Amino acid sequence: MIARRTDALLGAGFVVLWSSGFIGAELGARSAPASTLLAWRFITAVPVLALWFAWRRPRVPRRDLALHVLIGLLGQGGYLYGVFEASQQGVDAGVSSLVAALQPLVAVALAVPLLGESITRRQFAGFAGGLAGVALVVGGEMGGGAPAWAYLLPFGAMLSLVAATLVERRARPSVGVMEALSIQAAVSAVLFSGLAAAEGALVPPAEPDFWAAVAVLVVLAMFGGYGLYWVNVRRTGVARVSALLYLTPPTTMIGGWALFGSTLRPLSLLGVLVCAAAVATALRPPRESGRGQARSRRPFGVGWKPADSNADASGDPAIAAPSARSTVSLPSAPSRTASASASTAGCRTPESSSQVSSVRPPRST
Questions:
Q1: Domain range list for the chain
Q2: Strands 119-120 and 299-300: what pairing?
């Protein structure tokens, strides 16, 4: 009983802290451009990560270094800039959160033609339902102050994150979570500092709201949300944490309503419910036969091929959770390197707590 309550509290804390990234983006957008806010988010975080890097002195192969530079540009640079610029243009944080929450489903769908992964009819139905739910939410929010084109920004951000996921899935870098996060944060600090300087906006404003947003983004979203992500993974498994990620859109919407007076429109709430049902459909565990074995379900899709050892017994690949690096890896069998040294944001197939270290996590906002 105590363990269940502890898991419930840790799960609730994770959802709130993960959602805080979208709230921080909207708060910061009220006092500074997106490039300024992102530059100082990483300028503030990099020294902490640099201290850890200097203490551990990990060896990073050149190949992995180059890969994480690319993943950082896509998963941190493209993803975060799209989300933060959307807030700058007036898109509600809840909308961006909802679109971002569809990333694992989109990644799985694109893995069919691009990586030859398999997808079941149930997952395909969940993907289609998720898109329908997002359409309802965006339709309910249109006309709320943001220009129509601004609603494309969260989608572009999400696709950039998907691209980072697919790169990681195909290349499979071997470095650990903190090494990857450190490299990507350093790349992002250089990227956004250069962008802010080019815009003449590198000097931070003195407004308290700006520094409150930076604190929320670094302390709560990056370190708090990412830290609780791993705590929950180790205690309850990847599948449950993947499901918890889909509680962030309604949490963000409620936070936006409480802090910024955002309107909760009926059509938007209906869209959230549709998305929740779609995700539940996609993540629902396979039924078991009398022998306790999962029934075989026929995967389908462009470029389909028989499910590999990464899929569960039903042929359903596990939906990955978003990563601390802003990437969510698709399901893959643990590599020899990962097995030899159990130890970055984005995760995959549900595994026992003893195997969690070999799974890679998602990226917070």
A1: 2-285+295-358
A2: antiparallel
Residue closest to 363 by CA, chosen among 44, 81, 55: 81
The token pair at 242 is 């993947």
| CA gap 137, 131 in Å, rounded | 10
Contact 269, 263 (CB under 8 A): no
- Sequence letter at residue 72: G
- Is the pTM higher than 0.85? The answer reads no
Could you report the per-residue pLDDT of 290-304, keeping only the tens digit for each?
444 444 444 433 333
- Residue 167, classed as helix, strand or coil, is helix
State how far the Cα of 110 lies from the Cα of 338, in Å rounded to an integer.
Answer: 25
In sequence order, what are the beta bridge partners of 119?
Answer: 300
Residue 94, phi then psi, degrees to nearest 5? -65, -35
The pLDDT tens digits for 201-236 are 999 999 999 999 999 999 999 888 877 877 887 787
61-69 contact pairs (CB < 8 A, 24+): 61/174, 61/175, 63/173, 64/173, 64/174, 64/175, 65/183, 67/167, 67/168, 67/171, 67/173, 68/173, 68/175, 68/179, 68/180, 68/183, 68/184, 68/187, 68/325, 69/183, 69/184, 69/187
Report the run of H or E that residue 147 belongs to, with start and end: none
DSSP H or E segment with residue 239: helix 238-245
Enter the tokens of residue 239.
């599948």
Tokens of 273: 């419910």
Structural tokens at position 315: 């042929």
Q: Please, are residues 360 and 347 in contact by the beta-carbon 8 Å criterion?
A: yes
Please state, in angstroms and rounded to a whole number, the distance separating the CA atoms of residues 112 and 120: 10
